[in-house]
Amino acid sequence: MTRDSAPKGRVQAALERHGLTVSDAEAAGLSQLAAWMHDGLSGLAPDSPAPVGSDCLDLPIAELGARLRDGRLTSVELTRATLDRIAVRDQAYMSFYAVLEETALADAARADQDLAAGLDRGPLHGIPAGIKDLINVAGVPTTANAPGRAKAVAAQDAEVVRRLRAGGAIIIGKLATYEWATVGPDKSGLFPPARNPWRLDHITGGSSSGCAAAVAGGLVRTSIGTDTGGSVRGPSFYCGTVGLKPTFGLVPTSGVLDLAPSLDHVGPISATVADAAVTLDVLSGHSGERRAASRLEEPVSGLRIGYARNWFAHDSQTMPAVTTALDAAVSVLSVQGAVVSEVEMPDAAAIEVAVAAILHAESFRLHARALRDHPESYGRRAFLSLAAGLSLSDAEVEKARAVGASFRRAIDELLNQCDVLITAGALTTALPAAPFEKEAVWTPMRTIGFNVSGHPVLAVPVGFHKGLPIGMQIIGRHHDEARIVQFGQAFERASDFSVQRPPPP
């Protein structure tokens, strides 16, 4: 049989097998098309999968997990692609202090072996994650960006890192922080400040700076930060990421450097609401109905929003674009059937000064001896920030705690009437970094009250102004992370803000 007659005979046999009748001219056309396809396919390498490109890094964690489980992707490939992107992009972002290439690839290989053996550790299995450098990773310095901690190698993992590893996550590296989670950005620290991927000459918005920069810049889908006054949420507002501050005490802080123990929280900064929710579930160890992710995909129709517009709309510091974006975001949820009513939250200025006093008093007590005996271990701005609580009396601190307790009760009462509260997070978009290089500059936010009240708060991007992100806060009842996640995802799916990312540097 000649080469030309082979497709014709194959086509004729297939027509007869399937009981189809065609004319001679139609059969010739089918044979010609079949010959083209057979010849083309014969030139392709058999069983040769397409190479894994960096595009996979922009997929949600759930989709990455599906590909890891059905064999379209391996954790080693995903981790290698992550490392390659970090090598290229982080020269501009400076979000990583340490990239753990060797151990990450070894852990990824084990993650692949586990899946092949039928051992599935959960939604983060095989997924790279970054860790703020206030959190211990065994064998790696926990520097806190402080001069005196350059060689402070952690003997063991923090509990949250242990839980991530147990859940199959790949620890890819340590991420930038303001020194001791105090003030910044500060070029005199142990490392240069992380930079905002949306505009490199603007701030990232809080001490979990590297977490937000790495997620916004597409280097990782999820990261672990800390929040004592807003440092999971502030960077998320300014960098267009999702930050989830859990209920106080939900996530263990053992192995995490303290700033103010009664205010310290650990939580994820992630690319989407769902990514943040599944990350929090690994950190908290929750399962079943207690999971933050348990209400994903559920509608918000009939649920009640208390819109605390009084916390920002009439403040002279608030950009008009922030008010416009928040009003529009609440309208989006209203269109989906949520019932919106305006509520009055307690005076923001009063709770801000009260919690600042608690924070400075606790942080000074933790550092007083080292500030006295080893001042050279601190950068000057961090030294002064930590020393700021030295003159506060016990009576003043107790008064501040009483104000905090009153604020908590007021929020609880509002949440008895509403399912969630919504308000602004930052009153402006990210500010230019240049003024911060000269001195500490106050950034106007509405975050710190919820550190003393302990309520869970979700930060979600809701718009842009002149190319810089704007975010809102969704506040829920204690241990009701699932509800704020439900609202956050409902908004996210009705808009495109969470999928927008800055162009590569």
UniProtKB/TrEMBL annotation:
UniProt xrefs under SUPFAM superfamilies: Amidase signature (AS) enzymes
Gene3D superfamilies assigned: Amidase signature (AS) domain (3.90.1300.10)
Swiss-Prot/TrEMBL keywords: Ligase, Transferase
Keyword Ligase: yes
Domain (Amidase): residue spans on this chain: 77-484
GO molecular function: ligase activity; transferase activity
Keyword Transferase: yes
Function: Hydrolyzes indole-3-acetamide (IAM) into indole-3-acetic acid (IAA).
PANTHER family with a match to the protein in the record: AMIDASE AMID-RELATED (PTHR11895:SF176), TRANSAMIDASE (PTHR11895)
Name of this protein: Indoleacetamide hydrolase
